[in-house]
Amino acid sequence: MKKFLFPLIVIFISIQSCSVSNEKNSAVIESVDADGTMDNFDTEAYIEEEAEYKNGESASNSGFGTSASAPIMDSTSVTSGKKKNKSTWKRSEKSENTVSLFIGDNDELPMDAGQMVVTVDGFRARVLMDCFFFHKESFQAEGTFKMKLPQGASPYYFAFGESVYIDKNKKEVPFVNYEQVDFTPEGIRNMRSENWKSPKEAVVVEKEKAAFAYTQTVRRQIDPALAEWSGADIFNCRVFPLIPEKLHRIVIGYDVDLTTIGNDKEFILQLPDSNAPMVLDFNIAEVSSFPLSITPQQKMTSQSGYQKFKITNPKEEEIKIRYQGMQNIALISDKEEKEKYFAAQSTPDLPKNNTNNISDKAIIALDISLSSQPDKFNIWLNLAEKILKNNQDVIQEFNVLFFNVETYSWKENMVKNTTGNVDDFIRFAQGTVLQGASDLGIALDEIKKINSNKNIFLLSDGNITWGKSEPYALSNSVNKGDMVFAYNSGMSGTSISTLRHLTRETGGSVFAVTGEDELNNASKAFRNQAWKLENISIDGVDDLLIEGRPSFIYPGQEITLSGRQTNTIGNKIQLKVSQNGNNKTITIPIRKTIPSSTTKRIYGKMATDGLEEFGYDTEKYAVSYARHFKIPGKTCSFLMLETQEDYNQFNIKSTEDDFVVKNSTAGEIIRKTIREIGSLLGNPKAGFKKWMKKLTGLQGFEFEIPTSLEMLVEKIPENKFAINSKGLSCKKRKKSEIESEVMKELKKRKPDYDLISNSAEKLKTDKLNHDALRLLSSLVEKNPGDAVMTRDVAFSAMEMGMEEQAYFLFKRVLEKRPYEPQTYHAIARNLDKMGHSELAVLYYEIALSAKWDNRFGDFNEIAKLDYLNMLKKLKSTPSFSLKEYTDNRLEKLQSEFKESEKDLLITISWNTDNTDIDLHVIEPSGEECYYSHPKTKSGGQLTKDVTTGYGPEMYTLTEAKKGKYTVKVKYYSSNRNRSSTRTKVYANIYKNWGTPQEEVIRKVISLADKKEMHDVAVIKI
C-alpha cells in the first residue's frame, strides 16, 4: 500500500546584506537637500494628485503626477508661513507589515486580530507583531503566512503556537498589556504564558543544516519550520498544524533603521490591510534636543525616559513618528547587557567640489521587472528625466537599456541629450509593460559591450531574482573606467547590499531619493568629488565598522558605524579624509547617547553581512557571528523543531560561537581576506573548487572528492567555469500588446498562477516561447524563495528548449538544497545542451560520486545512462579538452550496461517533494508497465518506485515491437494538508536512445487531481 508523507512548515525570509569592498571608491548618500521644484511630468498609470498647502491657500500640484510621487503630508508638517517638511514617497498600495495566511495557494484565512508594539531608540526601531488567526474549518491544515517587511528590516524573533480566546463567544483575543516592554525571547513568552500553548520558537542555524533538518523532520510528519534568505524584505512561512476550530498566534519581531529625510529621522508604521481589531503600543525615547511629532497627534505619557501611547482600532493606514533635526546620535548597549556595543549615524560636513572625472556619455539601466510596478518605476522615470535634463552641460549623449529577464535598448546607438530626446524616451517608457523577474547580470553584460567610457545610472531596486547573482561576478561585468550610480528609494524590496557593492567596486555611489524633495539634488550628486576615507575612530570603541565599508565618502553622505565598546565612550568621532592631496580631519560631535537593546544587533548585522560577502572564504566566521547575534541571512536560517532531541539528532546544539566572536574581530577578518584573496574574488573556477570542498562537510549525503575529480577541475580552463546568461528576446513589450486580464494581475503585483500559466500556454501556441517564459518568470519574481515554483518554471524553460535559463534556476535550488541529487542531474543535462560539456562532466561526476538517501530510488542508474549518452557523443569530438578521461569513463560505463542503446527510454521527474508520481507505459500488446508490474514480457523495465521525493523514474525497452506506446503518469499522493497544490512532471521520451538517430520529446504536464491518470504522449515505433 502507498504511504502518505506530507510537508508541515516552511518559512522563507529575506534579510538585506551590507556589502564589503576592496580598495575602490564607495559612497552612499542617505540625505540630500532639495534645491528646486519638480518639472511637469505626465504619467499614464496610478495618477493621484495631492495639493500642497501653503499660507492657508491651495497651491498647484508639484507636477509629479503619480501616486509614487505625491509626498506624504504630516498633519504637523505645515504651519502658516512656514516651509513644509520633506516627506517620503506615497505608495499606491499598502505593502509593509501587511499579513496574510493562506491554506493552499488561493484560500486565505482572515486575520482575527493583531497587535504591534514599537520601541524607537534614536535612529533604530524595534517592532514586535502578534497575528491571530482562527481556523474555522473542520480539517487540520497547513498554512502559508506571508508578510512584507520594511526596507532593511532584520528579523530577530519568530514563533508559532495555539492560543485561546479570553471570551470565545465574543471572540475576544488575548492582547498583551505592555506596561513594561521586554523584547527578549523569555520576556515575549512570559507576557503570553497564560494563553499561548507550548509555542515553538525559531533558532538560527547554518542554512544547509537547517534545510536538511527541515526536510527530514517533514518526512516524519512532525511540525518543523524553516526561514531562509530568499529576496529583499520577504517573509514567507508555512505553519502547521492549523487545528480545526482553534485560535493560532504567530509572533514576529524585527529591527529597522528610521528613514533619514534631510536632517530629520522618521519612522512610518504601515498597518496591516485588515478590518480586524488592532492594538498599537508605542514607546519613543525622549530626546529633548530634537522636537518630536506624531501623526496623527496622540496624548502621550512619560515613563522611564520614554514617551508612551496606545492606539486601539486605528482608523489611519499608518502612524508616523518624526524627530526634527536629529543628527549625530549614538546608541550604546543597555546596562544589563554583558557585551557592550556602540552604534551611530552621522552626516560629515564635507566641502563640495565638482569633479572633472565625468564621462560625457550615460547609460540609463531601467528595471522593468514586476517588482518595479508601479511606484518604483514612476520614481525611476522621474529620476531619469532629472538626471538627463539637469545635467545637459556634462552628459552629451545617452541611451536607455530596459531589462527584466531580457534586455533591449531604446535606440540602436547613443543619441544627443536634448530635451526632445528625453521627452521621447519618457513617452516610450510609459507604454512599457512591467513584468518578469529581474536579471541584472544580463543588463551589465550588455552594457559592457559598449567600449567607450560611460556613467551607468542604475534605476533598480537591486533585488536579483534571475540569472547570476554573486556580487563580484556582477561587478566584474562592468568595464574598467565605467562608474555605476544607483538610487535608494527607501521602499520595501530594495536590496541595498547589491547596490552598494556595484557602486563601490566601480567607484560610483548610492544616492538616497526617499522623497520628491530629494530628486533634484540626487540627480546632480554624482558631479561632486568624493573624499577618500583615511581613518575613523572614537575613544572607547574597538573594531569600528562602517556600513558598506566605503573607501570614499561623498559630501552629504550619511554613514552608519558600529563597534565594540571597550571603555567609556568619547563625545566625538574623528574622521580623517583626503582629496587631491588635501588632508582634513572632520570632528563629529555626538549630540546624544541613548541606551538601546538594538545596539548589539546593529553591530552583529553589519559584521555578519560584511563577512558573508566573501562567500566560502569567510563563511565559518559569518556563521558564528550570525548564530551569536541571531542574524538570519545568506549563511544562516531560522529553524523551528519540536523538541531538543530533534535538534540533537541533526547536531544542532550549543557551539563555540561565543568564543569565536570574543576572540576575533570582523574588521580584521575582512581586511585579511582582502589581502589574501582579493584577486580571486569573483573568479568562477576558484569559487567552484571552494563550493565542491564545502560539499564534503554537509549533512544529508556523503561525498568525498575523488582524486580524479580534483585533477579534472585543475585541467579545465578558467573561462569554462563562467556561464553568462544571454537573456531572452521577446516580441510583446507594450501594455497594449498584453491581455487585459494579465495586465490587471501584473499591475496588482499578485500574478495568479493559473492565469499566468494559461496565458503562457497561449504564447507558446503562437510560437512566442521567450514571451511565455518572461511571463512565467513573474511567478519567480513574486515568490523568489519558493523552490517548488523555481523548479516549476525551470521545467517549463527546459520544455521550451531554453536550457540556459533553466540552468540558473536550478543553481538557485542547489544552493539551498545540496542534498537533493536530481538537481545536480538537471544542471548537468542543461549544461550538456548548452555546450558546456566540461562543466557537465563535473556535475555528473559529483552526482555519481556521492552517496544519496535511499528515498531517491534508482537515481544513480538513471544518471549514469544520461551520462553515458553524453559521453558517446563527446567521443566524436576530438578537440574536447577532457577527451582522455571521458573516453576511459565511457568504456567503464558501457561495461556496466549490457545494452547501451534503447529503442525507447522514458524518464520523469517532478517539482514537489514528498510527492508520489507513477509512470505508466502501455505497450502495443496492452500490457502495462508500472510500479506493481515493473517488468513486461517484451523486455520493458521500470526503475524503483519513488514515493517521497522528486523522482526520477525511468522506463527502458531495448528492442521495441512496432505499434503505439501510450505514456501516462498517475498523481498518486501529495501533501493532503493543503487545499490546493501545484505539481508538474517533466518527461523526456527518447526514441533510438544512444544512436545517431536519437529523437527526443520533452513534455511538462501540470497535475491537478490526485489519484487521476494524466496523458503524456503516444509514441509510434
Q: Which stretches of 5+ consecutive residues score pLDDT under 50?
A: 1-83, 976-980
Task: Give the number of DSSP strands.
Answer: 48
Number of helical stretches of at least 4 residues:
24
Strand order of the largest sheet: 6-5-9-14-1-13-39-12
The coarse overall form would be globular
Give the overall average pLDDT. Answer: 86
Largest β-sheet summary? 8 strands, mixed
**Portion of residues in helices?**
25-40%
The portion of residues forming beta strands comes to: 25-35%
| Structure class | alpha+beta
**Ends distance:** 34 Å
Please give the radius of gyration in angstroms.
29 Å
3D architecture notes:
With 1021 residues, the chain is of the alpha+beta class. 26% of the residues lie in helices and 28% in strands. It contains 24 helices and 48 strands. An eight-stranded mixed sheet has the order 6-5-9-14-1-13-39-12. Strands 2, 25, 26, 27, 28, 29, 30 and 31 form an eight-stranded mixed sheet that branches. The chain has an eight-stranded mixed sheet with strand order 11-10-15-8-7-18-21-20, with no helix packed on it. A hairpin with a 2-residue loop joins strand 3 and strand 4. Helix 17 packs antiparallel against helix 18 and helix 21 runs parallel beside helix 23. It is globular, with a radius of gyration of 29 Å. The N terminus is likely disordered.
